[in-house]
Amino acid sequence: MSNASERPAPPPDTGDGILIVEDDPHFSDLLAGFLSPKAGFGEIKRAKTLAQALEFLEAGGFALVFLDLHLRDSRGLDTLIAVQAKARDANVLVMTSVADEELGLQAMREGAHDYFMKGRIPPDGMRRMARYAIERRSAGLALKKSQAAMEIQLRHAQKMEAIGQLAAGIAHEINTPIQFIGDNCQFLGQGFTELIAFFEGFAAGRVPAPEDLQRRLEALDLDYLSLEIPKAIQQSLDGVARVSKIVSAMKDFSHPGNAIRQAVDLNKAIESTLTVSNNAWKYCAVLETHFATDLPLVPCFQGEFNQVILNLVVNAAHAIEESRSKRGEATPGRIVIRTQRIGDEVVVEVSDNGAGMPPDIQARIFDPFFTTKEVGKGTGQGLSIARAVMVDQHKGRISVQSRPGEGTTFTLGLPLHPVT
User: Fold this and answer.
1) What are the tens digits of pLDDT across the range 130-150?
2) In this structure, what is the dihedral angle of CA atoms 28, 34, 36, 39, given to the nearest 10 degrees?
3) Count of CB atoms within 10 A of residue 404's CB?
4) How much is the pTM?
5) Which of 4, 122, 173, 369 is most buried when burial is the number of CB atoms within 10 A of its CB?
6) Which residues pair with 350 in a beta bridge?
7) What region does 9 belong to: left with phi over 0, alpha with psi -120 to 50, or beta?
8) Domain containing residue 265
9) CATH number at residue 390
10) What CA–CA distance (Å, rounded) separates 315 from 29?
11) Tens digits of residue pLDDT in 229-256
12) Which of 249, 275, 300 marks a domain boundary?
């Protein structure tokens, strides 16, 4: 079974410091002199070994790293790989000797921003190279910030679009109980009018003759009223409860986004989303829920999480509809949602027995604007936004397992102790 997953990237480092990783004290002094704060650069830190460099990088605050690949405790591309793992958004400039030019080119292929040979670049050229690397980093951070803002807008727009698409179904879900509440209220009103008319004479002291009393009792049909009035009252109460549940679910589903995580009952959040989306799946599938009863409250952004669940459930319904149409089946499909705690993570699975996906589709399923639906029926943003919500925002994970003709399972992982 094919499996595709996404995991979070480390948070950005917006510091402007420079780290020089060089075990030659003379060249280190020379480089620090070229790039001093007097020349307009940030604070400089210096490390002679890889271990010292990693300690500095762990603390953060660097925009640029000058790295000699040949240190006392590490040599070659392994040095670069170790530094990049801790450098986050800092650009890395590799320093080489004349004999190591090929190694410098290899370093760039591995992700280094640039390389230069020691002693070959004058001070002004060194400063230009450093400023260019820092400016390019700043532009990259600004682009990431802009992309993050755009993702928020896209999530909000998709949520509004989803609510609009569900509005007709929600209106139908509310209209049905409202109709029988109205019918029952009319029945109760008519019965109450007849009872009042019957007892008004007794209240005024006018007691009818036995024959007239019997006739009026038969016309009133007390046996029928005593049987049907309690039913009408109970049906009306059930209808009010149904409408209240839908309205409460809408309120939970439309929960506004928060700047910080809140402790959320995921089982309740999922239940609310299923209530809101009921009209999207009830005509094509039977939906089962297997919620862990001991699930702890999970720190998350509830509105965004609700949107992810809605996307997955609606996609499951569409996959089942596609499969039923191709096979000419009338039997409803099956959607199963499970929650459980595994270690320090809460796992949510959304499974369906729909059309399934081949491996090449699974490989692209989280790409922005990628969709397998007909033109006008899908924007290709649903799963892309789901990935952004789960991986980038919640620092969790999302993966998909699928077999063509058998169905699909999406797995969400939310950390109970997320890294902020």
Assistant:
1) 888 888 887 777 777 777 677
2) -170
3) 13
4) 0.54
5) 173
6) 337, 410
7) beta
8) 256-415
9) 3.30.565.10
10) 60
11) 898 898 888 888 888 877 776 776 665 5
12) 249
